[in-house]
Write a structure and sequence with these properties.
Blueprint (H helix, E strand, L loop, with lengths): L1 E5 L3 E12 L2 E4 L10 E4 L2 E15 L2 E16 L8 E18 L2 E18 L14 E4 L4 E3 L7 E18 L2 E17 L8 E4 L3 H8 L17 E3 L19 E18 L2 E11 L12 H6 L13 E10 L9 E6 L7 H4 L3 H4 L11 E4 L7 E3 L2 E3 L14 H17 L13 H14 L3 H6 L1
Parallel strand pairs: 9-13
Antiparallel strand pairs: 1-2, 2-5, 3-4, 5-6, 6-7, 7-8, 8-11, 9-10, 11-12, 12-15, 13-14, 14-19, 15-16, 16-17, 17-18, 20-21
Length: 456
């Protein structure tokens, strides 16, 4: 809906769309759990709203403001069985601008602000699905049976963009000169404590596992996942940050980017049937390719230079050249061509985990270690308050234990792991590459004969 508020001067436009899908998502499970095949309710809601106002300031000046609101919510399993999560995305965008002329100069100015957030929470509890309220995320081999709380919940992600843009041009005979700049400040912050809701347990579905489950203590024999042996257990420390920097309402997990670009170029009609465009663009973004991180001296001790600070590229000039040619000069056939150099930098979707290995302090990072790495193969889980030894992986003699028998021990172990992993920005980072390298060298050295150590 749109129209004039003031004739030939002030205009408005409104647009809205609502989408509602009532969906049933199928879940196919293979033997020996094929009787659990079924579906779950997966509704999808979406709202997309827009409001815009235009104002004709003068005959050569026009201003506008636009607001967009986008929101959706959904239930999904991410492609994995009956372990569900509820998701919500919300994005708000404000854009304002003015276009005007001064003589044979034209000007275009834009300001934009975008704020977006993404939330994922566990959607399994209370759903009535198989083992929906069980305290473990259970994954049974490759049968497609996945139950219990979602391993990838909770997720809290925020992003805020502040952008300013100017484009100008000037006509001069057969040439149109163009110039401008663009600045974008991008802040993002995330809290992604994978596995914090419940530990994840993965068990194979081979013959020996089925044989063990047939005599299990719970009804159903090998058709009941609780009768299967504990084989792989993964726990989460409940922290879920990837940087030490606070921002966007979170005490850590913030990334900050500044992007600046400027350009100058021209569009020249060299002949009646030949137009050539040419120019150069400059792109600058501090902190590219992890150049903000300090050198890692421990790596340099092995290979000189490998642990140096990453070079920050500050001379990214991008030339561009193009043409449009009408061979017969009759306006029926046009041949176009162009060549250019362009620079782009990926955001945190590529290198979000880098601070886990490049920052020496900050006991706040995502950690999801294995507590059991196979039957009767417990793994020491390190914390800032000491080491934790799991006692539910089976016995050294190879005796296996059923999932349902030790589920409370597994959940208690994760709670202790989280209690011993406090939010501490000053504590040593256990995943820092330098300290991991030192530990590996010491471990290797401890395996050498005493005579070699004495000589060293």
């Amino acid at each position: 809906m749109g129209g004039p508020i003031k004739r030939n001067k002030f205009f408005y436009f409104l647009d809205g769309e609502h989408t509602l899908n009532h969906e049933k998502a199928p879940v196919l499970v293979f033997p020996p759990f094929d009787q659990y095949s079924g579906s779950f309710s997966a509704p999808f809601h979406e709202n997309d709203l827009m409001a815009k106002a235009d104002y004709q300031l003068t005959s050569s000046a026009h201003a506008f403001y636009r607001f967009n609101y986008f929101q959706n919510s959904f239930t999904s399993n991410g492609g994995f069985g009956f372990s569900l999560y509820d998701g919500k995305n919300i994005t708000r965008t404000h854009v304002g601008g003015i276009d005007f002329n001064t003589g044979n100069f034209s000007h275009s100015i834009r300001f934009g602000y975008l704020k977006t957030e993404r939330d994922l929470t566990d959607g399994t509890a209370g759903s009535g699905l198989l083992l929906a309220n069980y305290p473990l995320n259970i994954q049974m081999g490759f049968t497609g049976l996945v139950t219990g709380p979602a391993f990838n919940a909770y997720v809290l992600w925020r992003q805020s963009n502040h952008q300013a843009k100017y484009d100008g041009s000037k006509s001069f005979g057969a040439h149109i000169f163009r110039y401008g700049f663009n600045f974008n400040r991008i802040a993002s912050a995330g809290f992604v404590p994978f596995g914090s809701v419940a530990p994840a347990l993965f068990t194979l579905d081979g013959t020996s596992e089925e044989t063990f489950a047939q005599t299990g203590p719970f009804p159903g024999g090998d058709t009941n996942p609780l009768n299967y042996p504990v084989e792989y257990v993964q726990v989460g420390n409940g922290l879920g940050f990837t940087t030490r920097m606070p921002g966007l309402g979170l005490p850590a997990g913030n990334f900050l980017y500044h992007r600046l670009a400027a350009y100058v170029g021209a569009n020249s009609k060299w002949k009646r049937n030949l137009t050539v465009t040419y120019g150069v663009r400059y792109a600058w973004e501090p902190g590219r390719s992890d150049s903000q991180f300090a050198p890692i001296s421990e790596v340099n001790a092995l290979i000189p230079g490998l642990g140096n600070r990453v070079r920050q590229p500050n001379l990214n000039f991008a030339p561009q050249l193009g043409f449009a040619w009408d061979p017969a000069a009759k306006g029926k056939t046009v041949i176009r061509g162009g060549v250019g150099l362009f620079y782009e930098n990926a955001l945190t979707s590529i290198a979000a985990a880098d601070p886990l290995f490049r920052v020496p302090t900050g006991n706040i990072f995502i950690q999801t270690p294995l507590a059991c790495n196979g039957t009767a193969n417990p793994q020491t889980v390190h914390t800032s308050k000491g080491d934790l030894q799991p006692m539910f992986c089976g016995t050294p003699g190879g005796e296996r234990v059923a999932i349902g028998v030790v589920s409370s021990q597994i959940t208690a172990f994760q709670k202790q792991y989280q209690a011993d992993s406090p939010f501490d920005l000053t504590a040593p980072n256990p995943t820092y590459l330098g300290s991991l390298l030192v530990k590996a060298v010491r471990k290797k050295a401890s395996e050498l004969p005493a005579t070699v150590l004495q000589e060293a």
